[in-house]
UniProtKB/TrEMBL annotation:
A single GO molecular function term of this UniProt record: ATP binding
PROSITE patterns hit by this protein: ABC_TM1F, ABC_TRANSPORTER_1, ABC_TRANSPORTER_2
TM helices/strands, residue ranges: 130-153, 206-227, 234-254, 317-338, 700-719, 757-780, 825-847, 853-871, 937-960, 966-986
Domain ABC transporter: 406-632, 1030-1263
Organism per entry: Knipowitschia caucasica (Caucasian dwarf goby)
CDD domains registered for this protein in UniProt: ABC_6TM_MRP4_D1_like (cd18593), ABC_6TM_MRP4_D2_like (cd18601), ABCC_MRP_domain1 (cd03250), ABCC_MRP_domain2 (cd03244)
Location relative to the cell: Apical cell membrane; Basolateral cell membrane; Early endosome membrane; Endoplasmic reticulum membrane
UniProt keyword list: ATP-binding, Cell membrane, Chloride, Chloride channel, Endoplasmic reticulum, Endosome, Glycoprotein, Ion channel, Ion transport, Isomerase, Lipid transport, Membrane, Nucleotide-binding, Phosphoprotein, Translocase, Transmembrane, Transmembrane helix, Transport
Protein name: Cystic fibrosis transmembrane conductance regulator
Quaternary data: Interacts (via PDZ-binding motif) with SNX27 (via PDZ domain); this interaction accelerates MRP4 internalization.
GO biological process, one term: lipid transport
């Protein structure tokens, strides 16, 4: 936004400021094309985030200081008031003026009607007076239009200022939280403060002034009414006062239901999250039905709550609609029963006075109280956050006048606690000293305190006892690599300027050169949130490169080598740690023992204590057994041990990127699944969509009936007022007759008129309530139906849909869009319908009195249509910009919190604060436009209404000869109500249109393509597959019709009870083979299982008969029992046996509810290894003849791994087992190995036979594991081969016979 346009609001003249004319150029641009960020105006200097934040921070700091002396708690609200009370108080005057105009208006109205009551054509003085009153009435309307919107614009801007200032302070605080304070809060909570709590300030400023204006206004109105109709007015006021608390009570109840609904919605979205992210597994297990049942169950509960709160809302809206009628009915009944007579002026002055005060009392005043309470809660939460502990500054001393090489680290008898409540210190009696250019390795088992040692040097972990002296600039590479959204280059430079030679050197040393060449835009590639576009290994290297690029004296490297494979690791160690950095102090935490010979000093930690210290040879002599130290893998922390990491060179994670540094054979670059751009509907909403929406909730008859009831309700509403006017007119005639006939007095039949009036009022009330309940019912029903359709179509869509659409996008449909359909759309829609009918009513009444008023109305209507279209074009864009400029504020906050230590270690807090302020300013710019454009529109609409009022008023005076007082009163009092209502109705119509896009998005997802049917006519025999013979006959496979073919005409047979390993480089098509077998996408060619063609079966019949152990173990929230057996087909006994076989029985028995314990979200209370075992238990339970293992032993320590292998050999010896291997030692003893290369079979034979071919892919893969490993692999292959040939002969001929026949099959194929 450096080149943003200057904001014209600053230099606009007074006239332009009142009418918001300075926005006209923006509207004309917005009308011609879509607005972009460049079109937004710069923020006004007084709205800048930095300036506002510092100002409020100053007041808050003063407050804290003052309170510290008096030992009271500081108050944030006091600081806010001190900061903003002056400009806000000035605005209070505006409110007062506006509300006084509202009270004066009915008085003018009364005077005009009186002129008609005592109409005398010859009295010209009276006419002049009446013209004066008419001018007064028109003037009131016009000035109301102007003051109201100016007031609103300024209050909302003050609200914006408070919000921006608070955000600045929250972010500033977040950057200097101490570790103890971080424990008390969570990232989620801070983001919540920034997204929800501060928004209360936007609302609270709008209504606050009504707290003191409303009582004054009520008093004035009571005074005027008393003069008009005497004490009867008090009855109406009492009714009004009763309505207020009932509405507040509704509000209370409503928020209770909302919070109950929110809990259910959270559970539903959490379940949806798991379903969508685990969709692959759900499909392979054929578990769609239990999940559909689970979701629809939660949804049913949620909808019943939504219905309750919707009915409440309906009652509330209806009471608002009927309130004025009830008040008037009570007032006039009392008035007439006291023996007074009605007259037109009395009736309509009363009607208008009540109308003027009704909004303030029933809407603004309660709103003011409500928002005040809400914002007090928010202020309290923010204040608690602002009072958390801050970190004491880092204890590194930058060099002042030393020689450059005098950096040093000295630690003596250090003792630290992360958590003072635990009596065991995190680190104790650690002593070490380092001088320049030494490399220190810190080793030890998991949880020994290695990272804690680094954080205490950084100053993140406060020291309790001991001495810590650090001289020199520190820099740090964290264990979990942290990248922030931006380009790769900006991640590495991190605020330093670019020196090309140095930058190249760093890239080379960190093995990033090749990767940069592979990426589409090199190092200017944008990294998404949390580095989504990079692989784990790349993130780790970018993280390291960032530290290396800083010119520091002391480098703290927290395990940078374990996220990359062995080859890259060696490169990093030699070229970077011992190459580029050899002149610096380096402290390296590592698990890789092979590098220890090269380091100057080794510190061995165990349980926070220093066990040994010295060089490699010293430690070897002292008899410390390194390897045993590192093998102390606690069972509850399955961290992949070294061998695991080293062997897994051809894993899924180390895609081409991690092997980018290899000079040998390059792996093929993996095709990245491209993310489909989200479709955003352009332009207006089609009528068909409204029809679809209505039809989802009700049949055609019901919809027609609903529209009819709506019309009827509006007609009774108007009849109510018309009857009053008619009554007054008849009374008037009677009075005149009584004057002419002096002796006989006539009286009206009071009971007849009063009875009819009562009947009309009752009808209005009944219809008002009935139509609202009916409409809410229909709309909520349609939300329910649409959700079910969408969910079912999501369950039936092929897996590819989930690969190309990010989870967030699918979840957004289920959370945000369905949320709108449940809560906001019905209210807005109904509100709009009511207002639309009201406006029609007003125009109809005016036209019935003065038919020619339709001419100006038509003109105004055309102008209005044009303005609305003109406005919506721009406003939609601005709303979209506001949403898109808001997300960087949050993503910047959350990424800063993830990388807090790094930011502080690099001393970049200031810079990040400035970036945050820039993001805030960008959002403020769009928010400012959002405020002003809506005011621009409102001023113009209310201007149109003021013209309408003026035309009606003077029109009545022109036609004074043929009009009676009653109809004039009716027309004028209705015209005046049009003012606020009309623009609100139009705004609601725009809102409805915006919300209908949600319906559109939901409908779009109800029409997804679906996969093959779950059940077909052809049912397989119940015991199928009894043998487990799998035959691939010319199978080709691609993930999507237009996608590349990933398997080419495969022919292979997996014999019954055979154990087959499938190997191949990354992208060779190993996982695709499984996808074809499970028909995740329909393969070409034929796959037979026990002679039955799989493509003719229903998907569930097929998938339930094969077991799979997936690569990433997925557990679902719910009980342990649900996770093992969602269809409840097994007894408890069977479940326990299965758990025992996978060594989980002990773990599950310790859980509080045993099998019925609820698991945390996606099973996070189990370690990865344990989750893997649960998946194994599922396979054990299903007892299928075919087991597919997508090898996942990468995240399991060697012991668990052996255990899994053992269980597979024992439990599944009668099954056909197909293993996709990433680590060769697990499949080297299989019966045969299938080697895939680029989707074709390159070899298929016994492992030992394959190893004889020195040119073969398999041989090369074995050699790549390293010398030692290759030898042992060859050994195991040989052993297995010999065992097999022996057992075959000893078993007699049977097996051979079987095999021969099979081999014949194979060749025949």
């Amino acid at each position: 936004m450096e080149n943003a346009k200057a904001n014209p609001a600053a230099s606009a003249n007074v006239f332009s400021k009142i009418f918001f004319c300075w926005l006209n150029p923006l509207f004309s641009i917005g009308y011609k094309r879509t607005l972009e960020e460049e079109d937004m105006y710069d923020v006004l200097p007084e709205d800048r985030s930095e300036r506002l934040g510092q100002e409020l921070q100053r007041h808050w700091d003063l407050n804290v200081e003052k309170m510290a002396k008096t030992t009271q708690t500081p108050s944030l609200s006091r600081a806010i008031i001190c900061c903003y009370w002056k400009p806000y108080a000035v605005l209070g005057f505006f409110t007062l003026v506006e509300e006084s105009i509202r009270v004066v208006q009915p008085v003018f109205l009364g005077k005009i009607i009186q002129y008609f009551e005592s109409y005398d054509p010859s009295d010209s003085a009276a006419l002049h007076r009446a013209l004066g009153y008419a001018a007064g009435l028109s003037f009131c309307s016009i000035s109301l239009a102007l003051t109201h919107h100016l007031y609103f614009y300024h209050v909302q801007r003050i609200g914006m200022k408070v919000r921006v200032a608070m955000c600045h302070m929250i972010y500033k605080k977040a950057l200097c939280l101490s570790s103890a304070a971080m424990g008390k809060t969570t990232t989620g909570q801070i983001v919540n403060l920034l997204s929800n709590d501060v928004n209360k300030f936007d609302q609270v400023t709008i209504f606050l002034h009504f707290l003191w204006v409303a009582p004054i206004q009520v008093a004035a109105v009571v005074g005027l009414l008393w003069a008009e109709i005497g004490p009867s007015c008090l009855v109406g006021m009492v009714v009004l006062m009763i309505l207020m608390p009932t509405q507040t009570m509704f509000g209370r109840l409503f928020s209770k239901f909302r919070s109950q609904t929110a809990v259910l919605t959270d559970t539903r979205i959490r379940t949806m999250n798991e379903v969508v992210s685990g969709m692959r597994i759900i499909k392979m297990y054929a578990w769609e039905k239990p999940f559909a049942a689970l979701v629809s169950d939660i949804r049913r509960k949620e909808i019943s709550k939504v219905l309750k709160s919707s009915h409440l809302r309906g009652l509330n809206m209806a009471s608002f609609f009927c309130a004025s009628k009830i008040i008037l009915f009570c007032t006039f009944t009392v008035y007439v029963l006291l023996g007074n007579t009605l007259s037109a002026s009395r009736v309509f002055v009363t009607v208008s006075l009540y109308a003027s005060v009704r909004l303030t009392v029933t809407l603004f005043f309660p709103n003011a109280i409500e928002t005040l309470f809400e914002s007090r809660v928010s202020v309290r939460r923010i204040q608690e956050f602002l009072q958390l502990d801050e970190i004491c500054q880092i204890n590194s001393v930058p060099h002042k006048n030393h020689e450059k090489n005098l950096s040093s680290v000295d630690i003596k008898e250090l003792e630290c606690y992360w958590d003072k409540t635990l009596d065991v210190p995190t680190l104790q009696n650690v002593s070490l000293s380092l001088n320049s250019n030494q490399l220190l390795a810190v080793i030890g088992p998991v949880g020994a305190g290695k990272s804690s040692l680094l954080s205490s040097i950084l100053g993140e972990l406060p020291r309790h006892k001991g001495v810590m002296k650090v001289e020199g600039q520190l820099t740090y590479a964290s264990q979990q690599p942290w990248v922030f959204p931006g380009t790769i280059r900006s991640n590495i430079l991190f605020g330093k300027e670019l020196i090309p030679q140095k930058y190249e050197r760093v890239l080379r040393a960190c093995a990033l050169k090749k990767d940069m060449d592979l990426l589409p835009e090199g190092d200017l590639t944008l990294i998404g949130d949390k580095g989504a576009t990079l692989s784990g290994g790349q993130k780790a290297r970018v993280n390291l490169a960032r530290a290396v690029y800083q010119d520091a004296d002391i480098y703290l490297l927290d395990d940078p080598l374990s996220a990359v494979d062995a080859e890259v690791g060696r490169h990093l160690f030699e070229q970077c740690i011992c190459g580029l950095l050899k002149k610096k102090i380096r402290i390296l935490v590592t698990h890789q023992l092979q590098y220890l010979k090269a380091v100057d000093q080794i510190v061995v930690l165990k349980e926070g204590q220093m066990v040994a210290k010295g060089t490699y040879t010293e430690l070897q002599h002292s008899g410390v057994d390194f390897t045993s130290l590192l093998q102390l893998e606690d069972e509850d922390e399955p961290v992949a041990s070294e061998n695991a990491i080293r062997i897994r060179t051809l894993s899924q994670n180390s895609v081409c990127t991690d092997d980018g540094s290899r000079d040998g054979d390059q792996l093929p670059a993996e095709a990245v699944q491209t993310v489909v751009e989200e479709s955003r509907a352009q332009g207006t909403i089609k009528v068909g969509l409204y029809v679809k929406y209505m039809k989802a909730g009700a049949n055609v008859l019901l919809v027609v009936f609903m529209l009819f009831i709506n019309l009827l309700a509006q007609v009774t509403y108007i009849m109510n007022d018309w009857w009053l006017a008619y009554w007054a007119e008849k009374q008037d005639e009677v009075n005149n007759q009584n004057i002419t006939i002096t002796n006989g007095t006539q009286k009206l039949d009071r009971d007849f008129y009063l009875g009819t009036y009562g009947g009309l009022t009752a009808a209005t009330i009944f219809l008002g309530f009935f139509r609202n309940i009916l409409m809410f019912h229909i709309f909520v029903r349609s939300a329910q139906t649409l959700h079910n359709h969408m969910f079912n179509s999501i369950l039936k869509t092929p897996v590819r849909f989930f690969d190309t659409n990010p989870i967030g996008r699918v979840l957004n449909r289920f959370s945000k869009d369905i949320g709108l359909l449940d809560n906001n759309l019905p209210v807005t829609f109904i509100d709009f319908l009511q207002l639309f009918l009201m406006i029609l009513g007003v125009v109809a009444v005016a036209a019935s009195v003065i038919p020619w008023i339709l001419v100006p109305v038509l003109v105004l209507f055309l102008v209005f249509l044009y303005v609305r279209r003109y406005f919506l074009q721009t406003s939609r864009n601005i709303k979209r910009l506001e949403a898109t400029t808001r997300s960087p504020v949050f993503s910047h906050l959350s990424s800063s919190l993830h990388g807090l230590w790094t930011i502080r270690a690099f001393g970049a807090t200031e810079r990040f604060q400035n970036i945050f302020d820039a993001h805030q300013d960008l959002h403020s710019a769009s928010w400012f436009l959002f405020l002003t454009t809506s005011r621009w529109f409102a001023v113009r609409l209310d201007g149109l209404c003021a013209v309408f009022v003026t035309a009606t008023t003077f029109g009545c005076l022109l036609l004074r000869n043929q009009l009676d007082a009653g109809s004039v009163g009716l027309a004028l009092s209705y015209a005046v109500t049009l003012m606020g209502m009309f623009q609100w109705g139009v705004r609601q119509s725009a809102e409805v249109e915006n919300m209908m896009t949600s319906v559109e998005r939901v409908v779009e997802y109800t029409e997804l393509e679906s996969e093959a049917p779950w059940e077909t006519k052809l049912k397989p025999p119940p015991d199928w597959p009894s043998r487990g013979l799998v035959t691939f006959d010319g199978v080709s496979f691609s993930y999507s019709p237009e996608g590349p073919t990933v398997l080419h005409k495969l022919r292979a047979t997996f014999r019954p009870r055979e154990k087959v390993g499938i190997v191949g480089r990354t992208g060779a098509g190993k996982s695709s083979l499984v996808s074809a077998l499970f028909r995740l996408s329909e393969p070409n060619g034929k796959i037979y299982i026990d002679g039955i063609l799989t493509s003719e079966l229903g998907l569930h019949d097929l998938r339930q008969k094969m077991s799979i152990i997936p690569q990433d173990p997925v557990l679902f929230t719910g009980t342990m029992r649900k996770n093992l057996d969602p269809f409840t087909q097994h007894s408890d006994e069977q479940l326990w046996t299965a758990l025992e076989e996978v060594q989980l029985k002990a773990v599950v028995e310790e859980l509080p509810g045993r099998l019925d314990t609820l698991l945390a979200e996606s099973g996070s209370n189990f370690s990865v290894g344990q989750r893997q075992l649960v998946c194994l238990a599922r396979a054990v339970l299903r007892k299928n003849r075919i087991l597919v293992i997508d090898e996942a032993t990468a995240n399991v320590d060697p012991r668990t791994d052996e255990l899994i292998q053992q269980t597979i050999r024992d439990k599944f010896k009668d099954c056909t087992v197909i293993t996709i291997a990433h680590r060769l030692n697990t499949i080297i003893d299989s019966d045969r190995i299938l080697v895939l290369d680029a989707g074709r079979i390159s070899a298929y034979d016994e492992p030992y036979t394959l190893l004889q071919d020195k040119q073969g892919i398999f041989y090369k893969m074995v050699q790549q594991t390293g010398k030692q490993e290759a030898v042992s692999l060859l050994e195991s292959a040989k052993k297995a081969y010999n065992n097999r040939s022996r057992s075959n002969t000893s078993n007699g001929h049977l097996e051979n016979e079987c095999e021969k026949s099979l081999i014949i099959c194979e060749t025949a194929l």
